[in-house]
């Protein structure tokens, strides 16, 4: 249990809220002029905790099977929780909790049915405009991610994902449309979700299927694709500042946190190297240039990338206004892992920490690690920070009376709020907001399950899409409402 070292206090105007992603909540995959995304083609596979990485294995044969599948096939992102039709009801529930901010993403393929289309899809524009107006009607500030793990399918089938330089121009066209049509409704923007993730799951982050690059060094493909995303992000940031002065554009990273497993120098050095891998691309988005260690990393891997001189100028001109991140858990790092227990985490494996409890999915809860991460990030970047994902996946039970008792979720929230308060008041961190991940139950990205539930709101659906889709308030709904009402100072449970 995290114990405060200072009294609870959050600044006036602190942005409390929740977070979702279009591919995990919207559904409506073939409605309103929406084109397909790679997420519409990812099946649910029943795998154990130890084999969770099998969810990310994907081939051209898997894609062909998905494109031939009928509507009864189990592709959970196609249906999600049908936020596409329930968004007004759901936003009203968020408002009842007192949300000040709601993080969502825009599905690129809902704005441009085909990314090559010269004009946007007006049905998609109308959907998001109405959603943002609905948020504002309830006093909720939208925080919008332009690309959240759902590249348009055409980038996979007709291009080579983000490996193709032409995709930069397509993305910038899409970003321009979003700023032009929604800039008066959305103050806070993010370019790419967990921008570092392509090195862990290239399909959803970069539209890259390894067997489609025969004879190529796939590591080199990924580094090249990452360069193109860096240039596209910088162009989008620069464009947003030019089009609508005053808007804020941030980057978003996976805040993986590794402790040395022991005090052996080798374990500490291995940890330092692993953490450099966490920061490499956010360093570009904040400082506007490639860090020397990233050039060395590519050199050691025998990888080279193609870039234009103007790319480096764009990186300098398109630095972000704030740094946002996801944080769920911590792991340990050892130079030699033989004989050590391993624990899964947010798309990574690490050495299990014997001092921490674990969820059913093996993620180790560590509120102190959130404070540690906040200090580490603020010391490194000296920019405002925004926690845009944090939460606990658990199996919840819907009782016959419609109640859901989830004291474990409230306990997790309490500990992490206490850690945030100390980071602000003792460590001097500039933290502007906090959005709980999966504020309403959604399809998990790491397992594609509904049964791994994060929300304060229960959605009656199982892993195979069976259920009424009816929404129920969990006990944690009222607890988060209390936290927000008190601006983080009343954590009594």
From TrEMBL:
Pfam families: Glyco_hydro_1 (PF00232). It comes from the Bacteria. The keyword Heme does not apply. InterPro entries: GH (IPR017853), GH_1_N_CS (IPR033132), Glyco_hydro_1 (IPR001360), Glyco_hydro_1_AS (IPR018120). Keywords: Glycosidase, Hydrolase. Transmembrane segments: none annotated. Gene3D superfamilies: Glycosidases. The active site is at residue 389. The keyword Hydrolase applies. SUPFAM superfamilies: (Trans)glycosidases. Belongs to the glycosyl hydrolase 1 family. This is Family 1 glycosylhydrolase. It comes from Enorma phocaeensis.
């Amino acid at each position: 249990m995290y114990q405060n070292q200072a009294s609870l206090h959050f600044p006036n105007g602190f942005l409390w809220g929740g977070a979702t992603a279009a591919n995990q909540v919207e559904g409506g995959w073939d409605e309103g002029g929406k084109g397909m995304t790679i997420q519409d083609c990812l099946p649910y596979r029943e795998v154990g905790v130890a084999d969770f990485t099998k969810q990310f294995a994907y081939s051209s044969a898997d894609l062909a099977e998905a494109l031939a599948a009928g509507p009864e096939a189990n592709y959970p992102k196609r249906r999600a929780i049908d936020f596409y039709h329930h968004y007004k009801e759901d936003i009203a529930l968020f408002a009842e909790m007192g949300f000040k901010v709601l993080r969502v993403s825009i599905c690129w393929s809902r704005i441009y049915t085909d990314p090559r289309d010269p004009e946007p899809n007006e049905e998609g524009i109308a959907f998001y405009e109405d959603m943002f107006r609905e948020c504002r009607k309830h006093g909720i500030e939208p925080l919008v991610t332009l690309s959240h793990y759902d590249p348009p399918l055409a980038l996979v089938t007709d291009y080579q994902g983000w490996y193709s330089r032409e995709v930069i121009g397509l993305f910038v066209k899409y970003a321009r449309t979003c700023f032009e049509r929604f800039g008066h409704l959305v103050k806070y923007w993010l370019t790419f979700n967990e921008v570092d993730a392509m090195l862990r799951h290239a399909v959803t982050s970069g539209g890259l299927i390894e067997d489609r690059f025969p004879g190529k060094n796939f590591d080199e493909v990924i580094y090249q694709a990452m360069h193109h995303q860096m240039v596209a992000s910088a162009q989008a940031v620069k464009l947003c500042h030019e089009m609508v002065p005053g808007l804020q554009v941030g980057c978003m990273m996976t805040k993986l946190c590794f402790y040395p497993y022991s005090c052996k120098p080798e374990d500490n050095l291995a940890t330092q190297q692993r953490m450099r891998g966490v920061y490499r691309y956010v360093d570009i988005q904040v400082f506007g240039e490639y860090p020397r260690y990233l050039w060395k990393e590519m050199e050691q891997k025998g990888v080279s990338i193609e870039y234009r001189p103007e790319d480096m100028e764009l990186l300098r001109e398109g630095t972000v206004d704030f740094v946002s991140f996801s944080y769920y858990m911590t792991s340990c790092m050892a130079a030699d892992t033989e004989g050590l227990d391993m624990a899964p985490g947010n798309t990574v494996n690490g050495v299990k920490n014997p001092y921490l409890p674990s969820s059913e999915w093996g993620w180790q809860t560590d509120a102190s690690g959130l404070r540690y991460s906040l200090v580490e990030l603020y010391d490194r970047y000296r920019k405002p920070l925004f926690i845009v994902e944090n939460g606990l996946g658990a199996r919840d039970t819907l009782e016959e009376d419609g109640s859901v008792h989830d004291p474990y979720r409230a306990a997790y929230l309490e500990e992490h709020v206490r850690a945030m308060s100390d980071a602000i008041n003792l460590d001097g961190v500039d933290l502007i907001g906090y959005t709980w991940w999966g504020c309403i139950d959604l399809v998990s990205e790491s397992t594609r399950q509904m049964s791994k539930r994060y929300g304060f709101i229960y959605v009656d659906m199982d892993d195979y899409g069976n259920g009424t889709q009816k929404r129920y308030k969990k006990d944690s709904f009222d607890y988060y409402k209390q936290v927000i009402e008190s601006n983080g100072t009343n954590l009594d449970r």
